[in-house]
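EI: anyone free to look at a 264-residue chain?
SC: sure, send it
EI:
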Amino acid sequence: MSIQITPLTGSVGGLVEGVNLNEPVTRDVFEVLHRAFLEHGVLVYRGQFLQPGAHVEFARLWGNPAQNNPLDPSVPGFPGLIQVTKIPKETASTEAWHSDSIYTPVPPKISILSAVVVPHGGDTMWCNQYVSYERLSPAMQRMLEGLRARFTGLRLARMRGIDKIPSAVHPIVRTHPETHRKALYVGHPDTAQQIEGMTVAESRPLLDFLYEHSTTPDNVYRHMWQVGDVVMWDNRCTMHYAVHDYGEAERVLNRITLEGEVPV
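SC: here you go
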């Protein structure tokens, strides 16, 4: 069966058919997937039931697994493969639009999730940050050029009870190292704290506008998880939001995150 890539929305996401990720991926197949990934930002593979070893091998085609937080639970026998389980809604750090670990000096570039146990609900949404930037007026694009913001892991610190809040400074508009397209690089108000050279009061209206501007419905793909799904996304040109509407129901996803580059 030949590989088929079908757009999932008009702005972000592609459905991949004709690939079995539990088998070795050839160079030719990888090149097709790589092109599709750069085009769509999010790739969805249904019905994979990806085994942990195959998950690790597939991830290594895309880069080096990032060092995990020692507090994250790993899949037994696979230290680089994190098991994402349910957490209380009131402490969830992912129920907000974000790019993974934007508050670190070198944020990861790609995340790959495999669905093991899926409740009713628990959808994940993604938005296209190329589109978010390109929809800005030329005047706004010029104003943002060269601006940098401080990002903090305040929500993560609250969730884990950490006293020292991680933070990093990155450009508000970053250039993707592979496509060379510009993407808006912002996040939730708890994360995008302040623009360099501006007061908090001056920064807040602009950061809030950019956050809301990025997540309009016509720029969003909402994924309804099924057991066996694999979804991968590009943290350099998307944001995502994990919907916590499943109460105390069990939810288990295996995740690998890959080392990225310093945003420029």
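EI: Helices lie at 27-40, 52-60, 129-134, 138-144, 154-160, 200-214.
SC: 👍
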